[in-house]
Amino acid sequence: MKLVECVPNFSEGRDLKKVEQIADCFRGKKGVKLLDWSADADHNRSVITAAGEPEALAAAVVEAVGRARELIDLRRHSGQHPRIGAADVIPFIPLRGVTEAETVALSERVGQEIGDRYGIPVYLYEQSARHPGRRNLADVRRGGFEGLARKMQDPAWKPDFGPDRPHPSFGAVAVGCRKLLCAFNVNLNTDDLGVARAVARKVRERDGGLPFCKALGLELKERGLVQVSMNLTDFTQTSVWAAFEAVKAEAAKLGVTVAGSELIGLFPAAALLDCAAHYLQIENYAPDRVLEARLFE
Amino acid sequence: MKLVECVPNFSEGRDLKKVEQIADCFRGKKGVKLLDWSADADHNRSVITAAGEPEALAAAVVEAVGRARELIDLRRHSGQHPRIGAADVIPFIPLRGVTEAETVALSERVGQEIGDRYGIPVYLYEQSARHPGRRNLADVRRGGFEGLARKMQDPAWKPDFGPDRPHPSFGAVAVGCRKLLCAFNVNLNTDDLGVARAVARKVRERDGGLPFCKALGLELKERGLVQVSMNLTDFTQTSVWAAFEAVKAEAAKLGVTVAGSELIGLFPAAALLDCAAHYLQIENYAPDRVLEARLFE
């Protein structure tokens, strides 16, 4: 069976009725399963996780974008998180029996339909990007909704599908294929944000640290701690344990210990099983030694 | 969907054609999946792992016992491993959507049919045991095939199903419901068997160690190492990481380090995910944070 995951982000995190109405597009559809949804009021943003057969999932995603177009007006939206659209980013991730190329093609069909049907500009990003400057989502999103009309006057930002100017209330959307991502935070026993930032700089790829590791230092004010918040964009290259140990070692150099860690969103089993194999020093580990892997292969 | 696992052990590990013929009973059957099989020439023993819908799996197991009766003659069998039957032990394990009580009942139906159809004495063991003295498989198997005729003269060893004397070539078989078991070995950097035995004594339940932990010290002659070979019979009570760390700590007291560890057979994902959560100090771990758990729930 072909199985693709989609983790669309919507710019509504306060009115949970609206979030539910969007999530409903993934409910009760043959071949589609709503796995999770969460909303964050500070960020005024919600994240839906769904998986399913490629075409059925694509149809549900297009429907959800239409629902977001009806329900969300970015002209009246505020929130900390950078965003360009009512549906802001729509990543598709190949899970099982489907290649990255097929998933790129799926993202293209979805982008085409969103552009044609709803009159929304669509940027293909990450593995689906047709221009090198669009691979990185941060570049696509730079300037946000407020800067979008101006940004799109530059021919370099002509969208891949849809009109050459923002949809008035929706904005634009980034659609693409990416790998499974591990969002993983390590909390440190200090309230000194400088420590978290210094550790983040040491471990992230951008500053010469671990490949496929993005990291930021953040405050956890309520707990009086700081956090190194990481996105591991290819855990087969930089594993969760390697990132954890790097944070632990860099923090130790500054005299700070690890308080704990957090998984964000749904986590791929393989990334955690790999950690068990490392710490238990398993000599004969292979993913197919796991009972469930055989059951559902 | 109801899903039960069965891990029957057969007393043939040298003639792989015979093992294949037995494994064939689990192939191409609707509702049954052959997950794994392995054979060990020293032990002259093979282990099949299959899973499926209860009734379909039960039918395949009964067929495999019949095949073993045709192919294996214990009067001409030698091997290190204790055994009483051509099919020696048939554990059923509830995996999904099925209770332990239902699985006990399934083991009883299978035992009844093996007794009636093939004239083989059957002992219900572990959670299916109807006598306290039959819970522990080692007690049922004590004396082996060679001592079986004499043992069965004792009314205390009247079988639960089948005739009151051993089948001449097959012997007898233990059938029962048990929990998922983790078979996990830790290799130590020494060739001193005394070290492995001393560590095994320290960690196993029988001698006051970890609950639900069975352990033996063994030699790995080819590698010049020794091994603590463990069965964790309830990993929710004694986790794999706790057993690993206990072996490591006890070995360290004797000045010996861990060389590595090995998973035996198919390993339940939950037991390994739990280890990742421990070593990564994950504060918000729960099995349903794993993507695959949501996909197949």
Q: Largest interface, counted with CB-CB under 8 A?
A: A-B, 43 and 43 residues
- Count of individual helical segments of chain A: 9
Distance between the termini of chain A: 9 Å
Report the structural category of chain A. alpha+beta
Q: N-to-C SSE series of chain A?
A: EEHEEHEHEHHEEHEEHEHH
Q: So what's the overall shape of chain A?
A: globular
Strand content of chain A: 15-25%
Q: Which oligomerization state do the chains in this entry correspond to?
A: homodimer
Uncertain parts of chain A? none
**At the third CATH level, what is the topology name of the largest domain in chain A?**
Formiminotransferase-cyclodeaminase, Chain B, domain 1
When the domains of chain A are counted, the total is 2
Give a count of the beta strands of chain A, DSSP E runs of length 2 or more.
11
Please state the CA-atom Rg of chain A, rounded to the nearest Å: 20 Å
The overall pLDDT average of chain A reads: 95
